[in-house]
Structures are given as structure tokens and as C-alpha cells.
Amino acid sequence: MIKTYRDGRVKLTGDDYAKAKREKWEEQKKICPICKLYLPMAQAELDHLTTRGMGGSKRDDRPDNIRVVHAYCHRLRHYRERDQAAKAAAQVSTVFDR
Questions:
Q1: Model confidence at 28: pLDDT above 60
Q2: What's the pTM value of the predicted model, to 2 decimals?
């Protein structure tokens, strides 16, 4: 099923989600864009370039916003983002603590 929101976001479910994942995997020539290594379909996960937000409330499955990556690479990407956000918050708090 494909649901389109007023703001232009698209949400895919079921067979449409699986189809988009396979199409993106084939488009990428079965290569993970993060590590540049072969990506078996069984290890592939959809990664949203514009992150979904907590709980996926702002999920956007448009083809230009998704890519297929290794599960490990996907986790690593989000851990790095969270780590960078924590470091930035710490820097801001030290500026205001002076």
C-alpha cells in the first residue's frame, strides 16, 4: 500500500515496501553505499537519507530519500549521528556554563 501525505511524503507498506527495497538494491548494483561492499539482499535494510524521527512519525519512503545498506552500516550511521549530536549538545552546554 502507498500512502501520500499532504506535505508530499510517501509511506510504503507490505509488498510495496519490499518492492521498493529490491528496486533500490538492484539500482545500487547490490553494493552498500556506505562501505562500498557487496550487499546480500538478506542483509539489506532501507535507510532514509532524511531520518524518520522517533517512531517513524515523519517517515518518507520516496525513492530519492531511501537507499539500501547493510544492517551493520545502518546501525553505525545512526550511532555516529547520535554521538555527534551528544557532542554538539555538550559543547553548547559548556558555552552557557561559563
A1: yes
A2: 0.72
